[in-house]
Amino acid sequence: MPLDPRTGVHYALHGQGEPLLIGLPLMASHVEIFGVDSEAVLRGYLDRLVDRYRVLLVDYPSIGGSRDIAPNELTVDRVCADLLGVASAAGFDRFAYWGYSWSGAVGLQLASRTDRLSALVVGGWPPLGAPYAALLEATRLKQAAPEPSSLKVLRNAAQYRQWETYYESMGDWDEARSVAAIACPKLAQFGGDGDLVEAGIAVPIASAIRAHRAELEAQGWEVVEIPGHGHGVTLLPELVVPPVRRFLDAHL
Hints:
Elements: E1 10-14, E2 18-22, H1 30-34, H2 39-46, E3 53-59, H3 76-89, E4 95-100, H4 102-111, E5 117-123, H5 132-141, H6 148-151, H7 161-169, H8 175-180, E6 186-191, E7 196-198, E8 201-203, H9 206-211, H10 213-218, E9 221-226, H11 237-251
Parallel strand pairs: 2-3, 2-4, 4-5, 5-6, 6-9
Antiparallel strand pairs: 1-3, 7-8
Helix pairs in contact: 5-7
């Protein structure tokens, strides 16, 4: 797997065809990070995509084989620049982007900053009415004791502060105006029971998407709810990949 010398991002390419960058929870070093039992999830995604799509996976941010990023440097600007940079290093000009949860939120930032996206898939995150303030508060509360699931990915507990940096850097980002301006084909997908509670703070995800569904659809979003599943539905490729594949096939 190559390392982009400019961004320091370690990446892997799979398959041939239309360029598709998939962010967290998939990674270039997925099995090395999560263990051999995670290979079924990775293969469940790739085996359903690589016949038509050139899939780019990245170790990002500061995970796996990628170089470190100081926690106080993980701003929205830095994240977008790094992902566009590694896409270029992988030979992608225009490309589809698919992210889940945090990387889904990153997709909204990318789509509002570049015309290089041919399609956008946002999983497990509301494009409108997103709980950015709630997550910023929760990350601040969890600095002293990040949950084990986070530490499984991060290099050390101090790195957890990068999420606080990221949400702080959004500043006065105009969500409504920015999302309304996204011109590429776009899909929002979520588990119907996908609301969260982080550090005792409600983080509405599924309910926020349902509340804004009519507005999203009026803006051209396709909205797919997977009933009976929570935020972890992303680990079930047999459920999440087929509707995304149909969407991508229809638009690319």
